[in-house]
Design brief:
single chain, 500 residues, mainly alpha, 19 helices, 60% helix, 0% strand, YneE/VCCN1/2-like, transmembrane, membrane
Length: 500
């Protein structure tokens, strides 16, 4: 495994390694095969080696700090999402009175409302993941099903025009006509007849609805057919969309250049004569002159902002209805604020590389050091100067490349943070929160399954309550005997848990 990780650096550093190896071969060949010796004093090697090592160490340490900060910020998203979900699910009351009718709202309506808002909390982390990976818009398998409930227009659907489209969907390049077909009144009024009718007998509008419905159901069937494989998107709703949904995880396709970077210089010669290679390489991501992948910048996405706006709108609604105490309102507001603050910091890490002058000067200094290295070590190594220069250039250039690799840890590379894992962990935890039944404390505390005073008193709570003659029930001495039991608990636990 470790060898594989080291080999992954080769496509990025091979030009430098090759160049300095050729310099080493030139020095060794001239010095061995001609009467001229290219050896020079190694004093410069001693002086500059230590300084350069410290600078490279600082470079990699700085990059790792960015990597570590990115991981901490994702932990903050996890904590804020959990806190927000717990406040919504547990502390927002289930019993509500409709102010217009004066009657109590059905429990189902309240639960649907709360669960939908928690789904938006889950969608927030997913939208941040796509933003950091340079994937704009909302049409993804793991994002669209969670936010498809959000309004598309500033007016009712049947009265809407393209100019009424809200920013979230306008920025995602929503297909206005297809949206009208899927979500308009026509679909609601004709869906039963259309779903049971041959599409050849329908007018053009009905055919579009039927085609959308078939695409919708086909997506559901495909997910069910993949039930035995790892497909976390199966846990999400299957809803019609205006555009085909892209996969939740879309890493750039691998090609031969990812394993043999030096082949990239021969691409103009190889591609026309190899259909197979062309099929592999034409879909590859953008690359530099040496074949190194160019990482995408964070997408100019407003999806996290829009989701935060809807969460704030829900918070405002709860406040207007008086459903939150001041302390809980503060906690909910802080959680939403933390989510927005974290996104700005993640975007800062993504879009703020180290200053170019610093990187250029460090790399130039390293190149000069490696260029003069074979001249200084030839006297001691002879022909071994060639492999020694190759190893040194791979080692030092590799450290620089590692620093550049991990300073932007949000993509699909092996050394990047596993954002999909973080989002799925948040999803599982939010569903665990909504599985909580918020029972009354008395329903589970005063039962035969609870031994609160163990090990001092191993009776269960039901037995202790029913034993009215016990000293615990004394009017003036009951608390005294309870405290004696607590003190006995301490002595027993202190003795049982220590090694003698």
């Amino acid at each position: 495994m470790y060898l594989g990780v080291h080999l992954l650096l080769l496509p990025s550093v091979w030009p430098e390694v090759l160049f300095f190896s050729l310099v080493g071969a030139m020095v060794a060949s001239v010095s061995e095969l001609t009467p001229h010796s290219l050896a020079i004093s190694n004093q410069l090697l001693t002086v500059l080696g230590t300084v350069l090592g410290l600078v490279i160490s600082f470079r990699t340490s700085t990059a790792y700090e960015r990597f570590s900060e990115g991981r901490k910020l994702w932990t903050s998203i996890h904590i804020a999402s959990r806190t927000l979900a717990q406040i919504i699910w547990i502390h927002v009351p289930f019993e509500r009175v409709d102010k217009e009718t004066g009657k109590q709202k059905p429990a189902l309506e309240v639960v649907i409302e709360k669960k939908s808002m928690i789904n938006l909390v889950q969608a927030y982390s997913v939208s941040v993941k796509h933003m950091l990976r340079g994937e704009g818009g909302v049409y993804y398998d793991d994002l669209y099903p969670l936010i498809s409930l959000l309004p598309r227009f500033s007016v009712k659907v049947e009265k809407a025009g393209i100019e009424d489209m809200l920013p979230l969907w306008k920025a995602s390049d929503m297909d206005f006509n297809m949206h009208q077909t899927i979500h308009g009144e026509t679909f609601d009024t004709q869906r039963t007849a259309i779903w049971r009718t041959d599409t050849s007998t329908l007018p053009s509008g009905g055919k579009e609805i039927a085609m959308a419905r078939e695409a919708w159901l086909n997506a559901a069937r495909k997910r069910l057919n993949r039930a035995r494989s790892f497909d976390p998107e199966m846990a999400l709703p299957v809803v019609p969309s205006e555009r085909p949904l892209q996969p939740a995880r879309n890493p750039p396709p691998a090609s031969l250049y990812d394993y043999f970077g030096f082949l990239y210089i021969f691409k103009p010669l190889i591609t026309p004569f190899s259909r197979r290679l062309r099929a592999v390489t034409t879909s590859a991501p953008a690359r530099s002159l040496t074949g190194k992948r160019i990482k995408p910048q964070a997408a100019d996405s407003n999806v996290p902002v829009e989701i935060a706006l809807f969460l704030n709108t829900y918070f405002s609604s709860l406040m207007r209805q008086g459903l939150l105490t001041p302390a809980l309102a503060t906690g909910m507001n802080n959680a939403i604020t933390l989510l927005q603050d974290v996104v700005m910091n993640l975007e800062r890490i993504k879009n703020t590389p180290l200053p170019f002058a610093y990187q250029a000067h460090l790399r130039l200094s390293l190149w000069l050091y490696l260029f003069f290295l074979p001249f200084q070590i030839y006297t001691a190594f002879g022909w071994l100067t060639i492999p020694a220069t190759t190893f040194a250039s791979f080692l030092l250039c590799g450290f620089l490349e590692i620093g550049q690799e991990i300073e932007n840890p949000f993509n699909y590379d092996l050394n990047d943070l596993n954002l999909d894992h973080f989002c799925l962990a948040i999803q599982r935890e939010l569903h665990e929160v909504t599985a909580h039944t918020t029972p009354d404390t008395e329903s589970y505390v005063f039962t035969q399954w609870n031994q609160p005073f163990a090990p001092g008193d191993r009776r269960n709570a039901r037995q202790m309550l029913d034993d009215a003659a016990h000293a615990y029930h004394g009017l003036n001495t009951g608390v005294y005997h309870i405290r004696k039991t607590m003190l006995k608990n301490w002595r027993d636990v202190n003795e049982m848990t220590r090694h003698h």
